[in-house]
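Sequence design from tokenized structure. All designs in this work follow the same two-part layout: the structure record, then the generated sequence. An example of the structure record is given first.
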């Protein structure tokens, strides 16, 4: 989702892009391979000024997450440095700032350190997006569907009203990636379309857009961890996909995911949600004709 948004924003540039199984629709120079193929990575990086590393694994066991998010990142940074690339932009995750919470968060934090180590003198910029909102994001679909039915499950029974969240839209993130690629960032940059909001704020904003009251339904922490453990087990058997698991439950129960980086892209939460939720239906007036 983020890669497609980024390529759409760069169509007037000379771009090479890596793909594994199916290439995108954008008119760029496509190179088939993956993070294990140094030959494909070398072709990708040859003669390039900037490499943007968007690929990553969002769910899986600790070994799989390490292989992609740590070893794969280090391999690409090494190949980029050897190819003479000037600037390496790593799309990490906000979860990296709380690496104790999950195997995913740990892999993203370790991936940042691996990139910095492999880069040598090559400039490295790290971007840590919060939750990314996009039209075709399967991770957000359960929440969006629940909101359409007037419901919002929220994590935890105690203190759920105090928990803070943040989000960035895929299109905004693409623009921020381009800005960082041009100007650089000395510290991990956290982009945001909405920098801080509560679950109650989310219910209210969605209700404004949908024209209905949204009922919040606190889900006990034990239930979240239990569902997460079941999802992890089924995923290990190859029976389910998705990103939810025990680690994601721990991330959802974290008290504060606010973005503290200054950003000029702030808009209201209801405005950010508007493209992803249907507008309220307009009731017929008494003299309206029905055909």
């Amino acid at each position: 989702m983020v890669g497609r948004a980024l390529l759409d924003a760069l169509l007037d540039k000379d771009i090479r892009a890596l793909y594994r199984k199916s290439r995108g629709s954008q008119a760029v120079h496509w190179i088939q391979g993956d993070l294990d193929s140094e030959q494909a990575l070398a072709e990708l990086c040859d003669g390039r000024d900037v490499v943007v590393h968007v690929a990553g694994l969002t769910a899986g066991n600790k070994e799989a997450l390490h292989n992609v998010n740590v070893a794969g990142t280090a391999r690409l940074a090494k190949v980029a440095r050897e190819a003479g690339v000037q600037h390496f932009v790593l799309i990490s995750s906000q979860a990296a700032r709380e690496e104790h919470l999950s195997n995913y968060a740990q892999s993203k934090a370790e991936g940042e350190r691996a990139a910095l180590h492999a880069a040598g003198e090559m400039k490295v910029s790290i971007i840590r997006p919060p939750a990314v909102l996009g039209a075709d994001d399967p991770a957000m679909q359960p929440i969006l569907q629940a909101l359409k039915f007037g419901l919002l499950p929220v994590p935890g029974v105690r203190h759920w009203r105090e928990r803070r969240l943040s989000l960035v839209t895929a299109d905004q993130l693409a623009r921020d990636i381009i800005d960082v690629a041009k100007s650089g960032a000395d510290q991990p940059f956290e982009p945001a379309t909405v920098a801080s909001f509560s679950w109650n704020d989310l219910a209210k904003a969605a209700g404004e857009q949908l024209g209905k009251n949204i009922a919040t339904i606190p889900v006990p922490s034990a239930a979240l961890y239990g569902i997460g453990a079941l999802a992890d087990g089924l995923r290990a058997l190859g029976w389910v996909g998705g990103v939810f698991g025990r680690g994601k439950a721990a991330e959802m129960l974290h008290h504060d995911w606010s973005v503290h980086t200054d950003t000029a892209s702030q808009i209201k939460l209801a405005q950010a949600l508007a493209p992803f939720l249907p507008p309220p239906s307009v009731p017929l007036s008494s003299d309206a004709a029905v055909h």
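Confidence is low (pLDDT under 50) at residues 282-291. We note this feature because it recurs in several other targets discussed in the main text.
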